[in-house]
Amino acid sequence: MLLLARQVTVFRLVQWIAYCALVAATITSCTVPRHFQPGKPFVYKTTINIQGNVPEKLQLEERLINQLDDSVKTQYIYYAGVRRVLEKPPVFDTTNVSRSKLFMASLLHSLGYFNPEIKDTFFIDTVRKQYRTHITFKVIPGKVLKLDSIGYAFRDSSLQSLAMHQQDKSVLKKDEAYTQQKVSDELDRLLTVFRNNGYYKINKEDVYAEVDTVVAALITPTLDPFEQIRLLDSLRKKRENPTINVVFKQHPVKDSSRIKKFYIGKVSVYPDANYEEFDSSIHHTANVKGYQFIYNSHRFRLPFVANNIYLKPGSLYVQRRYFRTVNNFTSLGAWQNVDFEMVERKDTSVPTLDARLKLYPSPKQNLNLSLEASRNVSDILTNGQLFGIGVNGRLLNRNAYREAIQTVTSARFGIELGADFIQTLQASLAHTINFPKFITPIRIKTDSLINPRTVLNLNASYTDRLLLFQSKSFNTSWGYEWVKGRRREDQDQVGQKWRKTWQYIPLNYEYTDVKKTDSLKRLEDQIPSYKYAFNNGLIISQILSLSTGIEKDNKLTLLRGKIEESGGLFGFFKTLDYGSLARFVKFDGEYKHYINQKHSSWAFRLFAGYGYVYGKTKDALDPNKIVPENNLPFFKAFFAGGPYSMRAWQIRHLGPGSSTLYENDTTNIERFGNMQLEYNTEFRFNITTIAGIKVNSALFVDMGNIWSTEYDNTGKRVPDASFHLDRLYKDLAIGAGSSLRFDFDFFLIRLDWAYKIKDPAHAEINNGWFNDIRILNGQFQLGLGYPF
């Protein structure tokens, strides 16, 4: 009877979802025209059908839609996502159809499609007194031109030598698809190469690309049709595999200075410039490392400023060094604006550029007080964020010690909301110092790095987990941060690049002192694992992390990885190893991928983490007995659930595995693990705009769990809590739901409602699928920002 009841419930749920989807689809399909010209046909719907096997067909279709003439486009306004209004539709005119075909053909030609065809059809549907015109464009792009050969033929021998020397970095590659954008990118790359070798004045008017004349004529949209037939006949062998040759050349020289190398002359630096008229009577001057400084105050140390300028007097002009100087001062934060002007000197036989660097300082200090809601994503005992309400104070000094050293002092008081409303109280005080350089025992060359920094962190916090424990913690770390990978304007090769942000912390010290309540001690008697989880903790670790990403067209991919090792060196001291020092190696990685469309997007996330614990400790019941540690410290362990993880479960209330060890726990104590796997996907879409606030929604699915080493109250190990590959299907938790989101541009409020589609805690019945699913039996989550 129980199984039958569950089957009936699931059937009714599916039936209800199908009915709602049918009603929504019926309402959405209704388009209401308004304010159209009576008695005249108007454009009601325009459709583009792309024929053939075309790569990235959806992206090409969207680009073709953007090429349509405005008079054949349809602009819809959506109300609450279910009512579609066609406001002021344009009058139908066949001239606009022909113009749209010409625009689309031009786009296809620029993308390298060989002899594309575009056919149009339309019909007028009479509905009451409306003459609704449906237009359809049938697009046959044809084959894509492939690059056959790429050559360089510059008149100037020095330019030719530079181009040939950098040929291996060309954007154009043999047998790849030809596009006009790639040719333009290659021209930009060549100009960057020339300017990085002293050719300051050369520009796009001096170089051009010459393509195969016969094929080039075929991709010219204005060519006479009879001439196209003649040329096609001459290219019978190229019809199946059309190719094109590209040669980069130099126009005849009109201004000889454009092909001359320039050198740096006098460099004037204004470290504390202002926007008022300069008063020469009150300024000071100094010559530091060959630079002429003109300043009004001693706000900055002049040698420090000189060390961040990369164009040296007497050196060859290099565009890359120019941009590096600008970007370096911009990223330091002590200046709000950087003006680096190059002026050609006329009174020298050697082409010379005088430089004038004006630096406009930012306000030195900034105090910020805020009330905010935030989230807990990692360590609940250190300075990790909480999901709840927090009061923050932050004092920023942008120019400590007169060398653009940034110091941040912050204080926080927050409460974490959980099943018992107020779940956690936390107070913290932190101080961070960012040095804009590497401070190391040995000199490290950082010329190829962007924003190299040394970071010192000091942090103390207090956490009161009501009715369970109180903890005091102290954390200090010394580390380095830097970015690897040149900015786009610095690149010798134009194109997509993975920029890598690195962080290495050779010394991270954390100590946590835990005071347990009687409630927690009673739980320890019931669940032995708690004896080892909620204890004093000492971590002496080093951390290495990497984050990177790449964006191409409408796709964005982000990758992040982190490894932390604790106790590897200091663990050889037995007093520490057997005491509170935790010894472990922890790995975690995250992959995110986004596909953005005009009114919707897909978002995917994959997370995996594992902690290998190998330390030893004294037995909680017998101090003379040494036992192995089984789990990560609870403030370093993995957890699932809440508004940013498995949303069908409360925060830290999923797992471990498919065990039922905590299912009857009335205190709702958190669950932690040594391992976590999670996959999330969302389909995000726009609904409407109300009073300037964007109202959006999403459908999502979350899959994952955590695993750990657990023991029952008899001391017997619980195998269902540990990870085993052959149990992955049984242990996997699946949640799904919908979301309502209010986007205020500067922040987003998210309301999620999720159901437990597969609950491993009830795996004994139908492997946990659709256990007790009812309309109101879901989990509500309130979040700020996107979940990933």
Automatic annotation (TrEMBL):
It comes from Niastella yeongjuensis. This is Bacterial surface antigen (D15) domain-containing protein. It is found in: Membrane. Coiled coil: none annotated. Keywords: Cell outer membrane, Membrane, Signal, Transmembrane. The keyword Signal applies. GO terms for cellular component: outer membrane. InterPro entries: Bac_surfAg_D15, D15-like. Residues 579-788 form the Bacterial surface antigen (D15) domain.
